[in-house]
Amino acid sequence: MQKRKEREDFMSITAPALMPRLTLPSIIIPSQLHSALKSIYCPKWGSISSSNLHNNYKKCIKSLSNVRTIIQRDYLTILKICLYLIQFEEDLELKRFRLLNHTVKTSDLENCFIISLKSLNGDLHVIKPDCEVDLRDNTKKVIFAKIVKVVGNDVTIKPYYPENPNTLKMKGKRFNIEFVDRHWSLRCCHYALKIVSKCNWIEIVYPRLRTNCTDMEIDIEWINADLKENEPQKQAVRKILNKTAYPAPYIIFGPPGTGKTVTLVETICQIVRHFPTKNILVCTSSNAAADEITKRLIKYIPTNLIYRMYAPSREWSTVKNEIQPCANFVQESTLFLSKELLLRKKIIITTLVSSVRLIDVNFRENHFSYIIIDEASQAVEPEMLIPLAITNKESDEKTRFHAQIVIAGDPYQLGPVVCCKRIEHLFGRSMLERLMDDCDPYKKQDGKYNPNYITKLVQNFRSHENILHVSNKQFYCGDLKICGGADIRMALNWSQLPNKKFPMIFQEVLGTETRSVNRSVCNTAEVLAVLMYVSILIKAKFGKHVITPKDIGIVTPFKQQQLDITHHLEAMKLKGITVGTVETFQGQERNVMILSTVRSKAFEHNGKEHIGFLSNPKRFNVALTRAKALMIIIGNPNILCRNEHWEVLWKYCEKHNANIPFEQLPGLKDRKSSSFQAIKKYIVSTYKVDGEKVAPFIKHYLKTAVSAGAVVQTKRKGATGSFKLSTDKPKDKAKGKAQRASLVHSDTWKAGTKKDGREKTAIARKPAAAVKKTTAKKALESPKKATPKTAAAKTAVKKGKAAAEPKSPSKAKKAVKAPAAKTKTPKPKKATAKAVKAAAKK
Questions:
Q1: Which site in 18, 491, 612, 820 is 20 to 30 Å from 389, CA atoms measured?
Q2: Could you say which DSSP state residue 490 is in?
Q3: Which distant-in-sequence residues (6+ apart) come within 8 Å of 179 by Cβ?
């Protein structure tokens, strides 16, 4: 009832006056630049211009790949050219997705339809919710629709006008379909650049170190009691309240699990408490992050002071119940408040791109005292300028920014997604990363950061020490301190752990990667391994905690692998397990994480081997820091260890006996006596996988397991026989061979290779004493074979045979042995002793 009343109150004050519809100008690429881009990307079209400006643009575009950092003089120019370049590439790519005489299917969602793109080859990254769809029938009538979601090769659309669904539902109706990118985010960036260029932007974008920082002592009563024992978090809040960095941005450097969001929420609450007349703008890269901050703030601040502003494309049904009272919806439709009503809100929360709608409100220059940007490491630099343009007008050439900018993020986690390879190194580097690398206020002095400009949070509340160890050493100088509760240790002593005191497993899987129609990569063997571990984990007990699907997260770098795993989990009726790419899991955590690396072949570039975008250290760091209590890595170490970070991880797990060989894959090694067909039938029925796809993997596994001694073949040879689990331990020799195989392909494992080489030499060359002993043994054996040739021996043998004739076979053997044992051959023995001595000396 209380929530309904709050909702009605919100609607009553927002209904009378609304913000006028925002219209941003379309982007028209300058003709000479467009001509230069055509001549570079489509040389077969030929150059349509030879002017100096055309040639200068061409040189500029080609030189971008050599630019490592943007200097102040070229800042605005390079950003604009990069935006034009992205637009040109996206438009060029979308032309490949035109469909002629195509049908649509009805979706489960109301008034929605599905366009299947299975007939098209290519990466669908350019088809995103920002795009629109034009469908033309044979009458040339056009139906305009928006994209709701893209899953695999299926694009779900929703027509803008209510009468259109009836046309789309007509059986046998065919359309010519075209995808159109309105480039909304690019238009927002261009608009912000135009405004910011007229202002004094240099002091924010290229700040200088100042010594006269104001730092007053403020008596703070902490709202979140957990901050009382966390000095870095308290330091950040105090410095931001005092604006010690102004006009430069203040940076909160928040490694995984260190409470970055907690610090931001505490900062906002303290600003409201100590400066009740100040206004705050909170912007994030994603709606998920904005929702998280809103959800936490409404616990401490009345909802009528908070305005959660969504984009018009947001569906009311997707807004969380607790956020709805302060969301910009009326009667389940989005609306934007007028300036008069916006002035009543102390805190406005939105995404960076959606904040562009506040520019035309024309707030006073000093309306916002604080602009807080979360997830700053995931935003391209022009997006970071959008909120800075809100309180500045184009005519104010010397205007200073009045707000203290706060930037929160982690430069060692995933950066902005940039599909244009030519400028990926420029646009893929966030403003946060550039400031920390290039600007003096944020650089370390004597091994420490300047607290007036930046705070590094170091207390990790998420992960077990062993799970965090590699990332901590590789990226955070070993500064992170483990402060989690008992839940981070609940996986210890789990029955499946090779080392019961080490909550990590590196499962070797020697699978084969294949490329799907949409050019993404998958690995059937690893899909099966993931399903095996999931089936073992479900309902497993970690102490008193029973594992449920919500405890498990499955992360993989490739979209197709994500889709395959999701499909099989659904077939196994396992719901509630989140399966996603590394981008999906940034900012999230689970008690148990399973990482499927997929990669089973290396690539070569400029004479050097690499493992594709798995080589990206930021991607590696994010994938490895999502788990709280248990981390399971599934992959091929022969390939992965060609990268330095994966090599360190493999060695670390090996040091703690956490590596499981391929032949000991759980779920397969527990199949006792079975034929190949029985094993295949069991796997297909249990894990709902394709029998034909999984057959080569099973054969490979059986061959490896037999050679390693983990499985015994009881009938016939090859994969047609029967197999049973070996009662003996796997052969040490095979184990050593498997370990060496994991190193042999890696250039960086030279020390290990040499060690293995020495071990081989030690085995091949026996010690001198052993050689003498062997020679002597052979020399002793040879006279024994010759002894029957002596007269005495022959007589003894004949007597033995005669004595043995009336007796049974078993007794006959004894009769033969008895005389032979008693036979005396003194002369040959002496000769033999001399021969032994001679052979030993030799």
A1: 18
A2: T
A3: 94, 97, 98, 126, 127, 131, 132, 133
| H or E element that contains 666 | none
Cα–Cα distance for residue pair 340/245, rounded to 1 Å: 32
Which domains are present in the chain? 28-96 (no CATH), 98-182 (2.40.30), 221-457 (3.40.50.300), 484-664 (3.40.50.300), 674-720 (no CATH)
| Cα angle value 695/700/702 (rounded, 5°) | 95
Q: With residue 619 as reference, give the H or E element that holds it.
A: helix 617-624
Longest dimension (CA), the chain: 129
Report the candidate in 356, 368, 352 with the shortest Cα–Cα distance to residue 243.
Answer: 368
Alpha-carbon span 644 to 473, nearest angstrom: 13
Assess contact for 347 and 282: CB atoms under 8 A: yes
pLDDT tens-digit map of 234-260: 999 999 999 999 999 999 999 999 999
Q: 């909702």: which residue's tokens?
A: 7
Cα(607)–Cα(614) distance, rounded to whole angstroms?
A: 18
Total Cβ atoms within 10 A of residue 208:
11
Q: What's the confidence (pLDDT) of residue 199?
A: 82
The pLDDT value recorded for residue 838 is 57
Q: Which residues of the chain have pLDDT under 70?
A: 1-21, 44-50, 119-123, 162-164, 392-400, 517-518, 606-607, 667-673, 710, 715-721, 725-842
Q: Which two tokens stand for residue 138?
A: 């044979």
Tell me what pLDDT residue 637 has.
Answer: 95
**Spatial distance between the Cα atoms of 754 and 759, rounded to a whole number of angstroms:** 9
Does an H or E element contain 151, and which? strand 142-151
The answer to whether the beta carbons of residues 256 and 347 sit under 8 Å apart is: no
φ/ψ of residue 604, rounded to 5 = -125, 135
The Cβ of residue 579 has, within 10 Å, a number of other Cβ atoms equal to 23
Per the document, the length of the chain is 842
Neighbours of 824 (CB within 10 A): 9
Give residue 206's pLDDT.
Answer: 95
What confidence tens digit (pLDDT) does each residue in 165-214 have?
A: 777 777 778 899 999 888 999 999 999 999 888 888 888 999 999 877 77
pLDDT (0 to 100) of residue 713: 77
Asked if 158 contacts 116 with a C-beta cutoff of 8 angstroms, the reply is: no
Rounded (5°) CA angle 429-431-433: 60
Determine the pLDDT at residue 735: 46
CB-based contact 443:287 (threshold 8 Å): no
Virtual torsion, Cα 611, 615, 619, 620, nearest 10 deg: 90
Residues 348, 390: Cα–Cα separation, whole Å: 12
Residue 526 corresponds to which amino acid? E
pTM of the model: 0.79
Find, among 696, 754, 704, 542, the residue nearest to 627 by Cα: 542
Chain position carrying tokens 């070229």? 74
- One-letter amino acid identity for 683? I
Helix (H/G/I), strand (E/B), else coil: 598: coil
Edge-to-edge strand ranges of the sheet holding 590-596: 578-580, 552-555, 590-596, 627-635, 504-508, 659-660
